[in-house]
Amino acid sequence: MTVDYLSVLNNKGSGLNITQIVDSLVDADTIPKKDILTENQTTKQSEISAFAEVVSELNSLKTDLTSLANSNKYVPTTANTALSLSVSDNSTAKGFASDIRVVSLASQQTLEFAGSSPFTSPTAAISQGTLTLTLGSWNSDNSFTNRSPAVTHSVKVDSNNNTLQGLAASINALTDISASVLQTSAGVYSLVVKSAMGADNAIKIATLDSGLDQFRADPTINLGTPTPRSVQKTAASDAELTVDGVTVKRVSNKISDIFSGYSIDLKSTTTAAFRVSSSLDQDSAYLNTKTLVERLNVTRTYLSDILDKGAEDGSAGTLAFDPVMGGIAKNLRNLTEGGIIGFGANSRYLTELGISTKRDGTLSINEETFKGAIQNDTGAFDAIFNSSVTSDNSNLVMNRNLFSSPKPGSYAYALTTYTDDAGDTQTTGSLDGVLMSGGTDSSTGLTYYSATKGDAMGVNIIPQTTVSSATVYVGESMVDTMNNYLEQILASSGALERRKTDLSRDLVDIESDLLDIDNKVETIRERYLEQYGAMESAVTSLKGTGEYLENMIKSWNSEDS
Fold first, then answer.
1. How far is it, in rounded angstroms, from Cα 211 to Cα 200?
2. What average pLDDT does the segment 260-280 reach?
3. Which residues are registered as beta bridge partners of 177?
4. 75 near 220, Cβ under 8 Å?
5. How far is the C-alpha of 472 from the C-alpha of 451, rounded, in Å?
6. How far apart are CA 2 and CA 451, in angstroms?
7. Position 150 confidence tier, pLDDT thresholds 50, 70, 90
8. Which residues, other chains included, contact 131 with Cβ-Cβ below 8 Å and sequence gap of 6+?
9. CA pair distance 55, 138, nearest whole angstrom
10. 3-class state of residue 531 by DSSP
11. Which residues pair with 415 in a beta bridge?
12. 91 touches 516 (CB < 8 A)
């Protein structure tokens, strides 16, 4: 049995259980504060866990949105495996049907240099001097036409690179030319030099140094020699095909400028034309859109649960009153309900495709309405899935730099004349009065204009003819806009991480306050004990005085008797 010595010693004082009273007072001072702090601690821990789940859910949404971006609405087909046809830009792709014959494939010029006597080692020394490599085309009479503008390279062979391997490395450092050392048989090696694709990329190699004469590439020199200095294994040539009877030539077997929004990959030649086509696939478009709606609903339901303020059953969600999370949920909802600009003169809405918001906040899609809408106008579908740069003038070919983010909307294009810093008169395109930089595409010879500043920065325009004015539309799809927003808030410096940091800091402060209370308990106890000790001393003193007076009175009374 525990003895309360303080109370035992106090039997001459007030007679109160001082220890019990002090414990009760200490508890009254500390327990309510600790209870509040502990409750706050539990709440903060729950909120931190909830935000971790939010991050996981939104990352999952971002992944799924990325997989749905640039969804196809057209399905290309080809009647011959001589080429493959694929959609390269959903925003500009349209239905078509054409007859194509592949006459020839584009090829590189391939030259083999075996030497007047065999090269027996890739590291054996060769002569020193200078080789001149010129790009262009060989004509039927063995004359050479330089590429325009002229492209000529000079390769110096010295003590640092005077081997087959060294020469190959120096050639590989050049543009549009490659080289390798190939072992052709036991102890025999050749230098193989290749051009880029296309008839205008053939190579002429000349030298004034007799020791390097075996590396010349010129049919007029090779002719009549006992051992050719170079042997052409394949000639540089363009791809040639007919499209509905019209002859088309390109420098590559990968062609992206015949059918807008489609890429062609030539595989082999054909003796006859065959049909290639692409048609609107309503079923695939609907399924992709339905998948998007269902995925958005998963996130909407999740956010609705954690933000539920408990109006119906009194049970609030974990983040019901968090302002940051409430703002994020609102922004995500607005991205699906607001107008999408940059896809023509008018804003686009999900409702155009039969997508509506139900009373519980989730989305629904009407298949019949969707298919009817996309049959008449695919613009709303593109506004959901396919970011684009378009124009109201078909003579302007549009694109955007891969990593650019021009501001969505419409821009007034104008062919603008201005005076440059040198005082010369120049002509270029402009968007909303902001001058674009100009240039010429080396492969097509067409002029192009690039927006290098302003809201439209990153937009490129290639006029097919002279266009004085037009309207340019920059559209960012709902999927891309939502992805960009998710990337922003999920970043290490984004709203979610900042909120988690704030909550963690609050939790540390609470834990510190709890520790402070525990550390102050003994101080509070000692204060109360001191106060009650003083009281007991006073009571004891008063009792002693009372007993003294009582004894005096008794003495007086006895004397009187």
1. 29
2. 93
3. 195
4. no
5. 12
6. 89
7. confident
8. 154, 155, 157, 205, 206, 207, 212, 215
9. 62
10. helix
11. 429
12. no
Residues 6 or more apart whose CB falls under 8 angstroms from that of 7 comprise 16, 17, 18, 19
Mapping DSSP to helix (H, G, I), strand (E, B) and coil, where does residue 337 land? helix
- Contact present, 180 and 168 (Cβ < 8 Å): yes
HSE value, Cβ hemisphere, 13 Å, CA-based, for 179 = 24
Q: Provide the edge-to-edge strand list for the sheet that holds 388-391.
A: 388-391, 469-475, 409-419, 425-431, 434-435
Q: Which two tokens stand for residue 380?
A: 């709303």
Domain ranges of the chain: 5-58+496-560, 74-105+239-280, 110-234, 282-385, 388-475
CA dihedral 414, 449, 262, 245 (to 10 degrees): 80
Examine residue 149 and say whether the peptide bond preceding it is cis (omega within 30 degrees of 0): yes
* 462 token code pair: 């290639």
pLDDT digits (tens, 9 = 90+) for 64-82: 999 988 888 888 999 999 9
The whole-angstrom separation of Cα 374 and Cα 280 is 9
Q: What is the pTM of this model?
A: 0.69
The residues facing 112 across adjacent strands are 192, 231
Residue type, 233: K
Residue type, 412: A
How far is the C-alpha of 255 from the C-alpha of 456, rounded, in Å?
28
At 362-412, the pLDDT tens digits run: 999 999 999 999 988 888 888 999 898 999 998 998 888 878 889 999 999
Dihedral sign (CA 475, 479, 483, 486): positive
